[in-house]
Structures are given as structure tokens and as C-alpha cells.
Please model this.
Amino acid sequence: MCSNSESLKLVDLRTGGCEIYAGHSDIVITLDRIQLDDPSRGYVLSGAKDMEIRLWSYDDSRPKFKKLKCIAVFKGHN
Model:
């Protein structure tokens, strides 16, 4: 989920647990998930006022606070 900050919040709807991920240097304004055939894996795209789009890999089997990993940064988007 997006928040009024530079962070991404990953919320587990089953438990209500929340993980916070840093990466952007300005407010995150958009977020989208790319679902793979396996629901425990996929990708997340985030866009922020820092004019960057970040591509994150998501893997539910990773330990807490390592489920999201930034794998690419696309600069210069407005």
C-alpha cells in the first residue's frame, strides 16, 4: 500500500502484520502488483514524486522484512 511517505507498506491481510520498505526519496503516489501463476511470488511497481519507478520482486517465502527486494530503478519519469 502507498502512504504519505517515501515508504512502501506490505500488509498481510491474514494476520494484519505490516512491513515497511524504504527506497524512494519522495512520496510514493502509485503502486501496482504483477501477479504470477504462483500467488506467493510476483512483482510490485512503485512510482513516486522523486521521478522514479521502482520494480520490486516479491517472494512470500523470504524472511520478514526481506519479502520485497528492489531489482530495478527507472529514473526520469514524471
Q: What stands out?
A: The chain has a mean pLDDT of 91. The beta strands are 8-11, 18-21, 28-35, 41-48, 52-59, 68-75.
